[in-house]
Amino acid sequence: MTSDAPRRGRRPGAPDTRAAILAAARELFAVHGYAGTSVRAVGAAAGVDAALVHHYFGSKDDLFVAALELRVDPRVALLPVVEAGVDGAGERLMQLFVKVWDIEETRLPLLALVRGVLEPGGQQLVRDGFFRMVLAPVGVALGLDEPERRMQLVASQLVGLVVIRYVLAVEPLASAPADQLVATYAPTLQRYLDGPLP
Amino acid sequence: MTSDAPRRGRRPGAPDTRAAILAAARELFAVHGYAGTSVRAVGAAAGVDAALVHHYFGSKDDLFVAALELRVDPRVALLPVVEAGVDGAGERLMQLFVKVWDIEETRLPLLALVRGVLEPGGQQLVRDGFFRMVLAPVGVALGLDEPERRMQLVASQLVGLVVIRYVLAVEPLASAPADQLVATYAPTLQRYLDGPLP
Hints:
Strand content of chain A: under 5%
Number of helices of chain A: 11
Order of helices and strands of chain A: HHHHHHHHHHH
Distance between the termini of chain A: 37 Å
CATH class of the largest domain in chain A: Mainly Alpha
CATH superfamily of the largest domain in chain A: Tetracycline Repressor, domain 2
Shape of chain A: globular
Number of domains of chain A: 2
Number of strands of chain A: 0
CATH architecture of the largest domain in chain A: Orthogonal Bundle
Structural class of chain A: mainly alpha
Oligomer: homodimer
Largest sheet of chain A: none
CATH topology of the largest domain in chain A: Tetracycline Repressor, domain 2
């Protein structure tokens, strides 16, 4: 049950109940991780039935993405990167990355997630959120051999770029134009996606 | 006045005075950054003369490195990487990186520095410490064109690897053997050091 609309186009519903479910989900996912959190437990913590959780948020995956509080569902945003196949995927991924991170509206919730990396609960969210739910499926959809390992290499480059450009804002990288970033990093990502693996 | 011994071989001195100077230096560098902190101000905050600060710690650069509380002076550790020239520097840099990060004694102080990245004072330390004092001089010593930009590209890869392997400890990257890491990342670093820049 993948939603194909950005999250700001929310399903209607009693705002208090929705908010209570979302708050419960954020807390449980942060403390127990994705695998250790059931939709039933989220419902119980919010004082509602699991069926109501599904009604408002769809699948457990959808609930998890909603709990990340991003403005765009990364699974949806990544579809065009994936659908065109592995050729040129490094460049398309960089274009998407810069587009999402250079716009304040989409950057701020992602930065909040990055800051959470240094807190134990935040680590679960990032590991489960970005690795299990976003990166690993992209690697599988691209038909990569060793999809987990290759997508982690990709992530190791992108996370570092986030830290230098958007968190530390070190010049000249912080002000480098988008097309220069794409041209610089796309070959690295492409090699990680389909180059030789030692 | 570069010390060529690891920092644990400290110069002798009254331990209370040394500690007071170091504590003052850490606080002032964190709050005001490298450029905004004078040796005189550190002395004043510690209740001693600037000459005594120089006596215990050497130059302002040496004091700054001491304030980072690393086990090894990165300027010294990087000498063999730099002295052999840019050919193969990516591989030598990766070997040093993995060696330093895979040993707990040297990893823990570095991790503390990384955690500081998300605090305003910590950002100053990382920007001044790693970029101004470690990376930028390495780029110059290697004779790179655009040394700052190239070393920031290198840093953007290494910082991301730190986050994925040592902070988040995502498998399989967290357990990848050192020689596999070197073989995987050395070509990326080498391209950033002397490949074409868009």
